[in-house]
Amino acid sequence: MTIAAALILLLLPGAVPPLSDAQRAQLDDAVDRGYVDEPALYPLLENALTWPADDEVGAVVPDYKTIYQQPATERGKLFLIEGVLLRTRRLELTQRGDWGDAVTELALKAPGQDEAVVVLLADPQNRWSINARSQSVRVAARFYKIWSDTDQHGQATNYLLFIAHQPKIAAIDNPAAAPRNGIFITLAILTLLLFLWSYFRGKARHGAVRTRTSGRSSQETAELLQESEHLPADPADALAEMDNRHQRDDADN
User: Fold this and answer.
1) Is the four-CA dihedral 15, 16, 19, 23 of positive or negative sign?
2) Which residues on neighbouring strands pair with residue 92, listed in sequence order?
3) Closest Cα to residue 129, out of 181, 171, 164, 87?
4) Is the pTM of the predicted complex or chain greater than 0.90?
5) Could you write out the DSSP letters of every residue in 103-165?
6) Which class for 185: exposed (0-12), middle (13-18), buried (19 or more C-beta within 10 A)?
7) What pLDDT score does 41 carry?
8) Between the ranges 2-11, 51-60, 203-212, where is the mean pLDDT highest?
9) What's the CA gap between 185 and 39, in Å, rounded?
10) Residue 190: what are its φ and ψ, rounded to 5°?
11) pLDDT on residue 162
12) Is the Cβ–Cβ distance between 121 and 129 less than 8 Å?
């Protein structure tokens, strides 16, 4: 970066300070696919602590494929990282400084990426070790290196590693839950209506039987009640069927 460009960035309100020459030289010694904790990490943490809160000036959307293919040329560049939070944890450091004695790791599921993108936060107060459930993350971060580690299944995996300071973290709305809730409510209403329909249908059927059996002997009533179990479900049809049966009985007698 030229001196003029650096001065322009410094004069911009809220601009992320550039890496100094000494920080840049130390970062250039980073070893891809090596340990996280190496000397090249600390100039990035030192620089990140000077960033204004929530600042994204100069951060660009990353081309993750390009970063994988040529990490040396992308190292130290400022990117705008976005994704869904998968995990947070604290990683202890061998060197203590203004960044504290540990960093906070954010593992993110970035759009279009099969492997997680990892952001290490300069977080001396441990503010960002939070519940990873249903959280979205947006943060300006400098690319550090490719980090070789194991995934949740114990398989060797390469992760892109970035350094940042203060992310924007927000709860994720889940619109997919609304249709499911609507289905459950609809099923509950239908179940209730079916119960009420069955209840009142039964009341009507037994009321019709009682009407037809008034004035009859207990034996005739019992016979009619037994026959009513085979009557049509509709009350009007049931009454018509009972009248037909009664007329057949009179004819037989």
Assistant:
1) positive
2) 102
3) 87
4) no
5) EEEEEEE-TT-SSPEEEEE--TT-------TTEEEEEEEEEEEEEEEE-TTS-EEEEEEEEES
6) exposed
7) 98
8) 51-60
9) 58
10) -65, -40
11) 98
12) no
Task: For residue 18, give every residue at least 6 positions away whose Cβ sits within 8 Å of its Cβ, in sequence order, or none.
Answer: 1, 5, 6, 9, 10
Contacts of 121 (CB under 8 A, 6+ apart): 48, 103, 104, 105, 106, 128, 163, 164, 165, 166, 167
Say which residue the tokens 């927000």 belong to.
170
Structural element, H or E, at residue 79? strand 78-97
DSSP class of residue 18?
P
Confidence at residue 217, expressed as pLDDT on a 0 to 100 scale: 53
**pLDDT for 135-176, tens place per residue?**
999 999 999 999 998 877 888 899 999 999 999 999 886 544
The two three-digit tokens of residue 219, written as one number = 């034996």
Given a contact cutoff of 8 angstroms between Cβ atoms, the answer to whether 152 and 86 are in contact is: no
**pLDDT of res. 129:** 86
Rounded CA gap, 129 and 2, in Å?
A: 37
> What is the SS3 assignment for 202-218?
HHHHHHHHHHHHCCCCH
At residue 12, the pLDDT reads 45
